[in-house]
């Protein structure tokens, strides 16, 4: 499944300049939902800093299509390697549902090494709200 997600992200990556103010596609992401669907997104970097990371773009695509629970995440960097989501992306994923800490993130394609989101977000500030 990791290779399938990696390939889905790679397919949309296509780094490009949209305008003198916007670059897109340097980083791409693919997410697998609990329902088994794959959603992709690319980063959108803007001069005014109102852009969007690839992971958040994929999450927006998922939410637009009526889903909100993620199983796996792959982020493909400009050089083709995989990387961990930034802090803003991690935070958004944690806020999706009580089980988000179990989301698997690919950290090495060759070895299929992964990390769970909860390992990147120890003692997450919002956990109590899911219990209230």
Summarize the structure.
The protein is of the alpha+beta class. It has helices spanning 2-13, 54-64, 87-96, 117-120, 127-131, and strands at residues 16-19, 22-33, 38-46, 70-76, 104-108, 113-116.
Structure keywords:
alpha+beta, six-stranded mixed beta sheet, Cytidine Deaminase, domain 2, globular, single chain, 132 residues
* Global geometry: globular
Number of helices: 5
CATH class: Alpha Beta
How many domain regions?
Answer: 1
Let me know the largest β-sheet.
6 strands, mixed
Strand content: 25-35%
* Cα-atom radius of gyration: 14 Å
Query: How many individual β-strands?
Result: 6
> First CA to last CA: what distance?
35 Å
Mean pLDDT: 96
Low-confidence region ranges = none
What CATH calls the topology is Cytidine Deaminase, domain 2
Structural write-up:
The chain has helices spanning 2-13, 54-64, 87-96, 117-120, 127-131; strands at 16-19, 22-33, 38-46, 70-76, 104-108, 113-116. It is of the alpha+beta class and 132 residues long. Strand 4, helix 3 (87-96) and strand 5 form a beta-alpha-beta unit. It is globular, with a radius of gyration of 14 Å. The protein has one domain (2-122): Cytidine Deaminase, domain 2 (3-Layer(aba) Sandwich). 32% of the residues lie in helices and 31% in strands. The chain has 5 helices and 6 strands; from the N terminus they run H-E-E-E-H-E-H-E-E-H-H. Strands 1, 2, 3, 4, 5 and 6 form a 6-stranded mixed beta sheet that branches.
């Amino acid at each position: 499944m990791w290779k399938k997600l990696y390939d889905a992200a790679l397919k949309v990556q296509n780094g490009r300049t949209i305008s003198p103010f916007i670059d897109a596609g340097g980083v791409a992401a693919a997410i697998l939902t609990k329902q088994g669907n794959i959603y992709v997104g690319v980063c959108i970097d803007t001069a005014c800093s109102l852009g969007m990371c690839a992971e958040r773009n994929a999450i927006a695509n998922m939410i637009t299509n009526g889903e909100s629970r993620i199983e796996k995440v792959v982020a493909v960097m400009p050089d083709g390697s995989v990387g961990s989501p930034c802090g803003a992306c991690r935070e958004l994923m944690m806020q999706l549902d009580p089980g988000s800490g179990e989301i698997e993130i690919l950290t090495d394609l060759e070895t299929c090494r992964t990390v769970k989101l909860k390992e990147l977000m120890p003692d997450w500030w919002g956990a109590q709200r899911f219990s209230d």
